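Each field is set out underneath.
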Amino acid sequence: MIHPHTDPAVYAAQLADKKTRLSELLAPFEAPEPQVFDSPGEHYRLRAEFRLWREGEARHYAMFEQGDNRKPILLTDFPIASRRINELMPQLQAAWTDPALGFKLFQVEFLSTLSGDALITLCYHRPLDAAWHAAAETLAAALGVSIVGRSRGKRTVIGRDFVNEELIVAGRTFRYRQPEGAFTQPNGVVCQKMLGWAYDVLGERDDDLLELYCGNGNFTLPLSTRVRKVLATEVSKTSVNAALSNLADNAIDNVTLVRLSAEELTQALNGVRPFRRLAGIDLASYDFGTVFVDPPRAGMDPDTCELTRRFERILYISCNPETLAANIAQLHDTHRITRCALFDQFPWTHHMESGVLLERR
């Protein structure tokens, strides 16, 4: 739901409600009181996606209430989005009056970063021709952005198909390549707080880390500096390529990255079947002390959850507190929660990110 206000008192009350909800979900497991990491009330969202809605000869940015795609909410700005996105919105709207750019344009996506980089994706119901390419190059130069054009399975890139982000953890700046169309954390300020919390909770260790669902290496980069070495897995080829670039760009050389799903790695570690992508990796050489997981909303499947039970410490970041609680219920007989946190990635909504450290009893 889109909120027309950002009243600090209302925000504080909503955040308190989220803390209560998380505490109640984790109460059966005797969790400590969660640390709470708040969000700015405005200009926190680094991604935004809009449909275009025609009224007469004019077209507007539009969003819809969930479940209702007939009544558009027309926008001239979007206060929860980054200042860079709000700066670009009217400039792009002026540009799409050019038929070379505006003809059969139906959707616009913005991707920005805390470091000021930005990329715009333009989606069309038509092939992109030479006139589009020339107009898009002129626009990209004028706005100081990269542009990606999409049309029926084809993609045309003006500039780069990724943005560059910089996040500071424990005084060190980490550089991230964030590809267009791939998952990235939407709230950069809170993401930085999440990374700092995970870095602190993991602590300085002399053993190894197993990371499941590593994405573009968001957590991998800072956590790799706290352990001897890391074995990280991710199934998305786009995210794997971004993670490999990020590791190289940050001169991190103690991470081995394997393109496997968490379920496939579980099968490999259980000896169910071998995987060619693990050839040359000596799993026996790892002394895993901690497993780090950041699963999708569905949480860990039962077999992967059972795999994590083998580890002394389970560091778990969750975007769905209900599936987090369900996974902890499976692990509660062998592990207890020693640290807990709430990260308000999505202010003005009921959604929340949370984190727990589970340690063997």
